Structure formats: structure tokens, C-alpha cells
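Following the same procedure, sequence and fold were stored together, as reproduced here.

>
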Amino acid sequence: MGVPIGAFFIGVAAFGVLDLLGSFDDPDDRVAHSTTIREMGKSLAAFVAVLLVFLASLSFASAGSAQSEHLGVVITIEFIAAVAQLFALDTPLESMRPTRRIRRDRSGSGMAFG
């Protein structure tokens, strides 16, 4: 039980450091895109569900309550699903959207940024 509590407090400390650095204090004219929790609801619920199933299978594997060969495959698939859901969570946030376009140079010798 100590590890989950420690992970929670690491998250709290990270949030505190980000708040101290002013990461959440941008004025409205400098904010490019804003998203509410309601817009992220489905993606966030799917991520939490996959993460809980992943953690439950890790718990079963460490307790030895199921065959380890099958749980190894299940844990791998659930980890990949959790990472995929984490990237799906970014869809409403649009933080991975490129800020510059990459286009082919007219001479065909390389790439140009514009």
C-alpha cells in the first residue's frame, strides 16, 4: 500500500512544482486552446478503466493466483492498450499538434519548414 500512496504524493508534488513555476497562470490572450473535463470525459474514463484492469492483472500476477504464461500476455496487451488510451486522451487536448508544417523542398533535396 505504500507504493500507491507514494506515487500519489509524487503527483501532488509535481503539480505543486508546476503551479509554483506558473504553468497554470497564463492570461487568456496567450492560451491557444482550452478544453474542459467534460470534453475529455469519455477518453479519460476509458484510460482509467484500462489502467485499473492493468493494475488488477499485475496484482493477480504478483499474488500468483493465475497462470503466469497467460498473465504475461494479458499484461503486455493491457499496457499497450493503456498507452494507446493515453494518446487518445490527447485528442481533445491537441497538445501533440505540430506547430510548423513540414513540406518537401522544391528541388527535392530535402525538407523545408514553413
The chain has two domains: 1-31, 33-95. Residues 33-95 form one domain. The two ends are 51 Å apart (CA to CA). The first helix runs from residue 2 to 20.
